[in-house]
Write a structure and sequence with these properties.
With 243 residues, this protein is an alpha/beta fold. The protein folds into 2 domains: 52 residues, no CATH class; 185 residues, Vaccinia Virus protein VP39 (Rossmann fold). 32% of the residues lie in helices and 28% in strands. It has 8 helices and 11 strands. A 7-stranded mixed β-sheet has the order 7-6-5-8-9-11-10, sandwiched between helices. It is globular, with a radius of gyration of 20 Å.
């Protein structure tokens, strides 16, 4: 099920490939994949084909503005993004929060309103660029955006900390479908007081939660958010506390 804007864009592309001449004129011949995304200001595609717009699109969530492109990850169900961010960020507050697999900053920006300092970590170059852009656009001054592999950044962060370093009040992670198995040792070494794990894959979430529970964390709450209606997929937000 697609939003009407994407349905219309797909209909436009179907018309463009109705014969070889039109397909060639639209730049569609030989393409194996087209990425599309919808925002508040319309639809963008990558690569640019069929006369459709390409480049940056925008989405407003809780009076924060996010910019992204069709090739960067951004949650697709706009109707539930406020609920998802509210469930993940909740009323947590403190001195230091870390946002791993931060993407373009979906959770980073609201965390910055509740914590004195936020560190976001993202390995994808384009997503990290958009994260910095979104931080600047929303005039947020207390976020440090790191372009790095999560596992390596955790190792470096732990090595550089001293006994006087501020404790990590909250660590939020939203990994890809494969989960965060490679990063769990580093997360446990950081010893955050609380962890929020956002997952789109229940089996890998269950696997990773087992390891966190074995490391001394307690599961406080787990909530499903139906970002993918009429499918078996579900977004899950798990909250843990360091016992």
């Amino acid at each position: 099920m697609l939003v009407p804007e994407l349905d219309a864009a797909l209909a436009h592309l179907r018309e463009a490939v109705s014969d070889a001449t039109n397909a060639a004129r639209a730049g569609l011949l030989g393409l194996r994949e087209i990425e599309m995304a919808a925002g508040d200001d319309g639809v963008a595609v990558a690569p640019k084909v069929g006369g459709l717009s390409a480049g940056t699109i925008r989405r407003a969530i809780n009076d924060l503005t996010y910019q992204f492109s069709p090739t960067t990850f951004f949650q697709g169900n706009a109707l539930l993004l406020e609920a998802l961010t509210a469930e993940a960020v909740d009323d947590y507050a403190g001195r230091l929060a870390i946002d791993l697999y931060a993407g373009v900053g979906l959770f980073t920006l609201p965390l910055a309103r509740r914590f004195e300092r936020v560190i976001s970590v993202e390995s994808d170059n384009e997503a990290a660029r958009f994260a910095r852009q979104n931080i600047a656009t929303n005039q947020i001054a207390n976020v440090e955006a790191r372009h790095a592999r999560v596992e390596q950044w955790l190792t470096d962060f732990t090595a550089q900390r001293s006994a006087e370093s501020a404790p990590v009040d909250l660590l939020l992670l939203d990994p890809p479908r494969t989960g965060a198995a490679a990063a769990l040792a580093g997360i446990i070494a950081v010893q955050p007081a609380r962890i929020v794990y956002v997952s789109c894959d229940p089996p890998t979430l269950a696997r990773d939660l087992r390891r966190l529970l074995d490391a001394g964390y307690a599961l406080e709450r787990i909530t499903g958010v139906d970002l993918f209606p009429q499918t078996y997929h579900v977004e899950t937000v798990a909250r843990l506390a360091n016992c």
